[in-house]
């Protein structure tokens, strides 16, 4: 009974912990994503795998040693025509079998490349491949940071819109209560009460839609982070910092961006690919050596001795293999030209990428400027809408304004608040693009 109580208690604690809400800052979201998102994990595995690729290429420059063994039985031995002189019968030809019915060979073979241009180039290419995957891992992490940051601010702003609707619902409910009291005392019309009820119903519908949008965006954020969808999260309500200090009069060097560096490393790999194809023009030289032990006799030679008619002997060989290509039907030349064509193509990509990165920076900077202007305008507009709503509400209570005026003022206040939060979102998204265009996305982890 005691064990059951302990087990029940532990399960209850586990359930409560699972239901705890995780407070999630932008830094927390990005850090979690870099540690758990599948894309980031796979990029790290690619870097690890590149080390194995280097080992594989390096193995081609090391000695290749192998052991071999065989057991053969010859039911019918080949007859060879030999001069009868060997057998004391000159002038005749005798068919004599050569070899034994059974033979078994065991040995060791060694091959060592002495000169092979493709091996040397492959070693350089393998090291560059590792660097390529390291840059690609960095680019993958930057893409994860960008996606998580965008999704994070989407959730934040939609939650702000939800807060606006909650305040609007609260204010409209107060107005409804006032009108209801007036209606019960014969001081208000039923149509006014009905209009406020319709207004409350519309706000509730809009609130539910916004609540659903928050849930969907939170799920998208969790997916981008690699976080279990059942985890409850809470984004702290901190004031957005809106400043133009991030702008720079000088355009950042696009050739230092990760996207450009990845293409440059790919260009280097294509250079090595071209040289590897050209290596087919060069001769190759290798050393070979073998040592074998052979047993022959009229019966299976294993574990047998000369007394059984089985004889064992060893033999060895050492040699050099030289291969000089002379004519390959222009196949090598065609491969070289294909490699050169790929090089020319990636050079075009490099030019296009640099132009695109510069374009990205200019667009982000322009969007930042426009967003700051929009934020200032919408902030003043929201402040003015709040004042109008307060004054209209006071006038309505005093009978100096109609219900239509009050509902219009409430609607304009909601629109102004949503426009302000939308302007904030546009600014934060533009800020992310600006940080990205400067190659500083990782700095978001420090925020």
TrEMBL record:
Pfam families: OEP. Belongs to the outer membrane factor (OMF) (TC 1.B.17) family. It is found in: Cell outer membrane. Residues 1-18 form the signal peptide. Its main location: membrane. Residues 336-395 form a coiled coil. Keywords: Cell outer membrane, Coiled coil, Membrane, Signal, Transmembrane, Transmembrane beta strand, Transport. It comes from the Bacteria. InterPro entries: OMP_efflux (IPR003423), TolC-like (IPR051906). It comes from Flavobacterium solisilvae. This is TolC family protein.
């Amino acid at each position: 009974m005691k064990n059951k109580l302990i087990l029940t208690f532990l399960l209850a604690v586990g359930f409560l912990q699972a239901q705890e809400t995780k407070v999630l800052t932008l830094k927390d979201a990005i850090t979690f994503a870099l540690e758990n998102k599948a894309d980031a994990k796979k990029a790290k595995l690619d870097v690890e795998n590149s080390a194995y690729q280097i080992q594989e290429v390096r193995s081609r420059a090391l000695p290749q040693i192998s052991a071999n063994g065989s057991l053969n039985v010859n039911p019918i031995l080949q007859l060879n025509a030999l001069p009868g002189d060997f057998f004391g019968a000159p002038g005749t030809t005798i068919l004599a079998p050569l070899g034994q019915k059974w033979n078994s060979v065991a040995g060791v073979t060694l091959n060592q490349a002495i000169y092979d241009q493709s091996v040397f180039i492959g070693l350089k290419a393998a090291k560059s491949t590792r660097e390529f995957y390291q840059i690609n891992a960095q680019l993958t992490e930057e893409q994860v940071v960008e996606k998580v940051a965008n999704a994070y601010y989407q959730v934040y702003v939609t939650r702000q819109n939800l807060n606006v609707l909650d305040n609007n619902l609260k204010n409209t409910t107060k107005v409804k209560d006032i009108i209801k009291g007036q209606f019960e005392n014969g001081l208000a019309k039923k149509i006014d009460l009905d209009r406020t009820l319709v207004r409350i119903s519309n706000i509730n519908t809009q609130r539910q839609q916004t609540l659903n949008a928050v849930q969907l965006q939170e799920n998208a954020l969790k997916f981008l982070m690699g976080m279990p969808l059942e985890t409850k999260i809470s984004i702290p309500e901190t004031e957005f910092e809106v400043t133009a200090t991030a702008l720079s009069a000088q355009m950042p060097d696009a050739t230092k961006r990760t996207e450009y560096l990845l293409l440059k490393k790919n260009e280097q790999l294509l250079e090595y690919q071209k040289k590897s194809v050209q290596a087919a023009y060069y001769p190759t030289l290798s050393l070979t050596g073998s040592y074998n032990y052979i047993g022959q006799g009229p019966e299976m030679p294993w574990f047998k001795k000369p007394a059984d008619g089985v004889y064992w002997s060893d033999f060895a060989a050492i040699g050099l293999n030289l291969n000089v290509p002379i004519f390959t039907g222009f196949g090598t030349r065609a491969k070289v030209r294909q490699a050169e064509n790929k090089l020319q193509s990636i050079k075009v990509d490099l030019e296009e990428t640099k132009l695109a990165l510069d374009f990205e920076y200019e667009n982000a900077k322009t969007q930042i400027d426009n967003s700051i202007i929009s934020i200032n305008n919408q902030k003043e507009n929201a402040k003015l809408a709040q004042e109008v709503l307060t004054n209209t509400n006071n006038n309505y209570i005093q009978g100096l304004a109609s219900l239509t005026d009050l509902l219009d003022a409430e609607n304009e206040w909601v629109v102004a608040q949503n426009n302000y939060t939308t302007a904030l979102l546009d600014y934060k998204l533009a800020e992310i693009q600006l940080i990205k265009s400067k190659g500083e996305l990782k700095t978001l982890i420090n925020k």
